[in-house]
Design goal:
CATH topology of the largest domain in chain A: Dehydroquinate synthase-like, alpha domain
CATH architecture of the largest domain in chain A: Up-down Bundle
Helix content of chain A: 40-55%
Number of strands of chain A: 11
Strand order of the largest sheet of chain A: 1-2-9-6-5-3-4
Oligomer: homodimer
Structural class of chain A: alpha/beta
Number of domains of chain A: 2
Order of helices and strands of chain A: EEEHEHEHEHEEEHHHHHHHEEH
Number of helices of chain A: 12
Distance between the termini of chain A: 35 Å
Strand content of chain A: 15-25%
Radius of gyration of chain A: 20 Å
CATH class of the largest domain in chain A: Mainly Alpha
């Protein structure tokens, strides 16, 4: 069964299709027939899904550009390669660029679509849980720079998203958990019903149950779509869209501390969510039982709830002070008022933050250390 | 006297300030005070205007990036240099990028602002007549590619435009006439009052009369603003925004034929406007007297009304067939119904087009051949 969620952004509205087996089914793509199509993907994804997708679209390998896999490919140099390729193929402004893969491919391809001839249509075919819930809604595209991630980019909405849950069957367990972190985040920040459903369905999600996955993705994307519709370009400081950063200020500190080498983004967010719940509880904003439910759910998703070995409260404080959300020298955090209700604020008791940091850093780190991420 | 025209684009609306001496007056820039500002310009413009502008803004040379002058600088490589510079200066998302110069600087700087951290504010300070009437309204930004002009870019509206008419005093006469071509175009396609005013004021414009210039720029930008508001991203095929291409299909053929080496864009547009008026007359859509008024006005602006020596009707036909506006094999043209009234259509008698081409190409070319453009 295919679920279709309409992401409402006025004239930039688009359908988000969710279901098992979408990508290999020509019926999915009737709206794309007759248009000049080009597919961008990476070598790992290509090995599994490129030929079925090309078949379903009536295309051949010459219509596809296959990049090496990995975050290091998300560069302006690769964007330029893709622009050259599109120009050499004489793709006009009615062309459609298709991103088949995870967040790296989606962000890079979306950026190229945003700047090719001042913007052409693009389609997302996300093949990881993280990209299905995170990159499918929001319109953020971009590439990395030596000075940091996503420093060059644009807002560019896709014309359609196809989230095929059957592609998740081949996802490594750590990546699955990292994707689930973003789903838990959505429940915590704005949808108590989704949160309750995750408590019920966590085992099914970890076993890749198609219905549980599709429901979670749909509900998560619905919430994101509502928030993005209020603040499409994240132009409101402290506005609705900043709520999507719940757990991220703590998480970014962990990613920076570990030099992006051993923690997946979703793993760092998982820990950050636990820390945000703990701090919200210490401020008296979140009931202790509810904070406990949050931390328990994160743990059940096989996500870390302890900082990396050796990371101190001072490490957190100095790394968090560099966050984009710092305004006029004051740290802003997304914090919870209840499960499903959050707020962005710089107005909190820093003693509570100190207590949260002391609590998490004093606990013995998990004995198993996190293995390095695969180099790509 | 400063005229302020509000360009109405909903939440992307901005003021367009027109007047003599704006750039050297700190009072012009009160809205920019306190923000992180950076200025991009070229060596020619810098020699005349950079220091006064920096003084008025309270900045120094270290806040400015000076590129060599010329169209060859409008590259992705230069965009990357500017991105690196902004990142090295730690400009955050509240930064404002200022383009001080003609169309090349405006297009390049606007593009960098569009993709820096997914878009920061930018300000246009156009210093040529063409950029004051053409690039100030419309939000088109971009860079060139080996395969063609403006093939990489984005729509990104400025937050303010300052068109200082006193900068036109140093404009070479050919550049002035080329800028006037775009003003005449506005009158022909959508504002008969502007057209009549140009007939009255042409000599004053050529003598750089400040009031005549400011009036013409304002009226031209008003018309453009109305049209752009209807179709901000030029997404409607044959929609209102295509009217701004009056004369351009003929003009592009001339530019391509002469390899962009000897005709200024505005000169080619001037001839194209004459040809469009002639064709509209032959179709019975435009009164012969009115076609004559158009051609006479173009001539008075010291613009060419003859094709380059040696260019044949077949040259025009084959180069025009490559135009972006060709849809389903049929050439679309912007044509006139009256002075101030135009339409985009593929539904015209091609025999009339043949007659126009034969008429213009049979006439002896102007004896003086057009000198090569300065290499930059």
């Amino acid at each position: 069964m295919t679920r279709v969620l309409k992401v409402e952004l006025g004239e930039r509205s688009y359908p988000l299709n969710i279901g098992a087996g979408l990508l290999a089914d020509p019926a999915s793509f009737v709206d794309l027939k007759g248009k000049p199509l080009r597919v961008v993907t990476d070598a790992n994804v290509a090995a599994r899904y490129l030929d079925p997708v090309l078949d379903a679209l009536g295309l051949t390998r010459e219509h596809a550009f296959v990049l090496p896999a990995g975050e290091t490919q998300k560069t302006l140099a690769n964007a330029e390669l893709l622009l050259d390729w599109l120009l050499a193929s004489r793709i006009a402004r009615d062309g459609v660029l298709i991103a088949l893969g995870g967040g790296v491919i989606g962000d890079l391809t979306g950026f190229v679509a945003a700047i090719y001839q001042r913007g052409i249509a693009f389609v997302q075919m996300p093949t990881t849980l993280l990209s299905q819930v995170d990159s499918s809604v929001g319109g953020k595209t971009g590439v990395n720079h030596a000075r940091g991630k996503n420093l060059i980019g644009a807002f560019h909405q896709p014309v359609a998203v196809y989230a095929d849950t059957s592609t998740l069957a081949t996802l490594p367990p750590r990546e699955l958990s990292a994707g689930i972190a973003e789903v838990i985040k959505c429940g915590m920040l704005g949808d108590s019903g989704l949160f309750a459903r995750l408590e019920r369905d966590m085992d099914a999600l970890l076993e890749l149950d198609g219905t549980a996955l599709a429901e979670a993705i749909e509900r998560c994307c619905q919430l994101k779509a509502r928030i993005v519709a209020l603040d499409e370009r994240e132009s409101l400081a402290g506005g609705p869209r900043t709520l999507l950063n719940l757990g991220h200020t703590f998480g970014h500190a962990v990613e920076t501390y570990t030099k992006y080498e051993s923690w997946l983004h979703g793993e760092a967010v998982g820990l950050g969510l636990a820390m945000a719940a703990d701090l919200s509880m210490r401020l008296g904003w979140l009931k202790p039982d509810d904070a406990e439910r949050c931390i328990r759910l994160i743990e059940r998703a096989r996500l870390p709830i302890r900082p990396p070995a050796g990371m101190t409260p001072d490490d957190f404080r100095s790394l968090m002070a560099r966050d984009k959300k710092v305004a006029a020298g004051k740290l802003r955090l997304v914090l919870m008022r209840a499960i499903g209700e959050s707020t962005t604020t710089a107005d909190f008791d820093t003693a509570a933050l100190d207590a949260t940091l002391a609590h998490f850093c004093s606990t013995e780190p998990a004995t198993e250390s996190r293995p390095a991420l695969p180099v790509s």
